Amino acid sequence: MTRFSPFEHSLWYATAPAAPTTHPLASQVDADVCVVGAGYTGLTTALELARQGVSVAVLEAQEAGFGGSGRNAGHCTPTFTHYSLPELRRMLGEPWAERLIARQTQANQRVSAMIERYDIQCEWRQNGYIQAAAYPSAIREIEKKVREYNAVGAGTRVVDAREAERITGSPRFYGGWFHPAGGHLNPLGYARGLARAVLEEGGAVYTGSAVKRVEKQGGRWRVATDRGAVLADKVIFATGAYTVDGWPRLEQSFKIMRVFVAATQPLSAGERRAILPQNTTIHDGRGDIYVYKYNAEGRIVASMFPMGRRGRDLPHTHRVMSDRLKWLHPQINPSLRWDYLWFGELDMQQRTIPRLYELAPGVVALTGLSGRGVPTGSMLGGILAEWALGTAENELALRMERLHRAPFWMSFGPRLTLRYYRGRDWLRSKMQRAALPPHA
Fold it and tell me: What phi and psi values does residue 350 have, to the nearest 5 degrees?
């Protein structure tokens, strides 16, 4: 079995524009707000605050985009996963549900606006997203999604098998859900661009500055690193799955789930005319998720979750990825290869909805993005900025909670759910005489 490094073969690190020049914190500085974590959530929070004249300092243990913000697959889909909108309303209650639904379903507008305003070079393409129907009965679920999302202004539509093939180039789908706001980008390029924007707006970003402790000093908070400290009125933790130290038990508020992303060699011009000809993002419609799209070089970038040998054994992982893609697109070159493969980690919550915690008066944390990275992280910055600016708790789009430990079964529950979905899809495909992909 061939083992491989989780991060050294990232396409994004090979192709993203250089990060802005930053340095570790080496003294004590003052700020109105200290943000811990330079991923999408922390950076968009800092950007929003800096634009409004708030003094803000960002502390990052590694570099901007080091965590999930720089490791994800680059898909940007402003939807919720796992739960329907009616289920969210029942689970969250009002007015919280409608507020969060509005933020999430409009999140790509926020992403697009920031990219345009700050000229962020991140391969942004907004050509739509298709969640495919992998078997005939899936169309009924898609029709429900269209009604639910269109009721809140999303403008999505059902596509039949012919249109799905025209958009995707795959003959394997029975139709699909087309979301015109869907997009994709180079996620590390986006994170680095956000960091540059924070600096342009007068904010401070200190990299290589891991937070060791937060303690009260007078009426303010002292956020200490090895070589310096930020003295701030308010503190925001936005470290997600890469939370280490900083605040007691914060890392216990979620459970880690790994995901891997791989990128092929650049496809030929002829292949690109036949495969994903409209440069959309594709979800193949199975619970054992396979999502893919192009990068700017014409490489297909695809993501899956580890399962069994997949994600541990490199040749087996490449074979599974290739077999699925060749099945979806028989016209692809048989000599397909994967030039890059890397891992990221997700901070999973039972409800797959981000959680906003009050750690102490003037100190909050937000964790549990559960894999909804680019649009979700980007819109959460607006919520955290509103809190920092003094918006009342009962007017925020997330309910403020007390910190609590994620249930123990979340360590294995999401993986068991994936296996359940895999078995469900196999049974439905068999019963409906739909073709099954390899390794299904």
Answer: -55, -40
Calculate the CA 165 to chain-centre distance: 27
Q: What does the pLDDT look like over 61-107, one tens digit per residue?
A: 999 999 999 999 999 999 998 889 999 999 999 999 999 999 999 99
Residues 6+ apart with CB under 8 A from 239: 36, 37, 39, 42, 67, 246, 250, 365, 367
**Tokens 């690190």 correspond to what residue?**
13
Q: Which amino acid is at 18?
A: A
On the question of pLDDT at 276 being above 60, the answer is yes
State how far the Cα of 304 lies from the Cα of 418, in Å rounded to an integer. 11
Domain that holds residue 397: 11-424
Question: Does 284 reside within a domain?
Answer: yes
Of the candidates 183, 198, 238, 184, the residue with the CA atom closest to the CA atom of residue 357: 238
Buried b (16+ CB within 10 A) or exposed e, 193-213: bbbbbbbebebbbbbbbbbee
150 — phi, psi (to 5°)?
-70, -25
Q: What is the DSSP annotation of 62-116?
A: S-TT-SHHHHS--EE--S-SSS-HHHHHHHH-TTHHHHHHHHHHTHHHHHHHHHH
Q: Which segment of 197-206, 269-278, 410-419 scores lowest on mean pLDDT?
A: 410-419
Residue 431 lies in a domain: no
Note whether residue 432 is domain-resident: no
Above 60 in pLDDT, residue 35? yes
**CA geometry: angle at 77 spanning 283 and 343, to 5°?**
70
pLDDT above 60 (res 4): no
